[in-house]
Write a structure and sequence with these properties.
Elements: E1 3-9, E2 16-20, E3 25-29, H1 34-44, E4 51-56, E5 60-64, E6 76-80, H2 88-103, E7 107-111, H3 115-121, E8 124-129, E9 132-137, H4 139-158, E10 169-171, E11 176-184, E12 193-195, E13 199-208, E14 216-223, E15 228-233, E16 249-257, E17 264-272, E18 278-291
Parallel strand pairs: 3-7, 3-8, 5-6, 6-7, 12-18
Antiparallel strand pairs: 1-2, 1-4, 8-9, 10-18, 11-13, 13-16, 14-15, 14-17, 17-18
């Protein structure tokens, strides 16, 4: 009942070799590509490779997104995002059905963009990138490698994304104006995505409309739901900015290592006097995200090194 790819290639899929043993589930993931369509269609027997061969036991069944989840006994089962639109109850029943098929010797090929699903169900995961095999093996190892790649691609894409000031509230006496807030990545480029564990910075640009004797500039990072994660200001960091003259502009840079978990955050920034009188306060003015190569719970990524010993 195994599925065997022997240098199977198509218009998008480069020569591919791999196998799904009897009673095993192999997951497939990567960035959407016509190579996925060819790989699944070859496995299901609805198309033939242009070179090489695919051997799979009959009968074969292909289930695509939106198709009925027919998990009756079959030798070869190919799932093309079959769980993508399902509710959790249906997905839980399907997982039980897949386990029953596995015990019966069915070979299953499962395409999904859900890392948790692949991690829970699969004996092996194949990462297909630009039409060829990038990695295959233990689900956790392959998923970590893929998520690391995806985090890098997301960070690269984000460097071209605009970061307008859209504060939920703005207040102050007008003696200074916060004209820009920027998140900066490890390469020193403006980016709306940080990678956890890398050096990053927040740059706050303030134009002073009037002379200010002792201005203080500060930031606050919050989660998307408003939980305060980290805040500091130039007074706390013992950096004196003033006195400043009317018309002068300062760019204040807060640099640190990103110790945050992967999720969405907002930045608040302000210029004010030491006694707390605001010149310009921008609440949740810009949004940014943090990406990581693996999941950790919470907000602070402490990057624990785990070991054990016998008591």
């Amino acid at each position: 009942m195994s599925i065997q790819f022997r240098d199977a290639a198509g218009a998008a899929l480069r020569p591919f070799t791999g196998s799904v043993p009897d009673g095993a589930i192999a997951g497939v993931l990567g960035e959407d590509s016509p190579a996925f369509v060819e790989l699944l269609r070859f496995a299901a027997g609805v198309a033939q490779p242009s070179s090489g061969e695919v051997i799979a036991s009959a009968p074969r069944r292909l289930i695509a997104a939106g198709d009925p989840l027919n998990l009756a006994p079959v030798s070869t089962l190919v799932l093309d995002h079959a769980f993508a639109t399902r509710d959790e109850l249906v997905r839980a029943r399907a997982r039980i059905g897949l386990e029953r098929l596995r015990r019966g010797g069915t070979s299953v090929l499962l395409l999904s963009h859900d890392p948790d699903l692949l991690r829970a169900l699969c004996d092996e995961v194949w990462w297909i990138h630009e039409g060829e095999l990038a990695a295959k093996g233990d689900p956790r190892e392959v998923l970590d490698a893929y998520l690391h790649h995806a985090a890098g691609r997301l960070a690269e894409w984000s460097r071209g994304v605009a970061q307008p000031l859209t504060p939920s509230m703005r207040r102050g006496d007008g003696r200074a104006t916060v004209v820009n807030i920027a998140t900066v990545d490890a390469a020193g480029r403006r980016s709306v995505v940080w990678r956890s564990g890398e050096p990053v910075a927040v740059e706050v640009t303030v134009r002073f409309e009037q002379a200010v004797e002792d201005p203080v500039v500060g930031i606050m990072i919050r989660t998307r739901i408003g939980f305060e994660v980290y805040g500091t200001n130039t007074e706390l960091e013992r950096l004196k900015l003033g006195p400043v003259a009317a018309g002068q502009t300062l760019v204040v840079r807060f640099a640190f290592y990103c110790g945050l978990c992967a999720q969405e955050y907002t930045l608040t920034a302000a210029s004010h006097d030491p006694d707390g009188v605001w010149h310009d306060w921008l609440e949740d003015a810009v949004a940014f995200s943090v990406a990581d190569s693996r999941y950790v719970a919470g907000v602070a990524n402490l990057r624990a090194e785990v070991s054990f010993r016998h008591a």
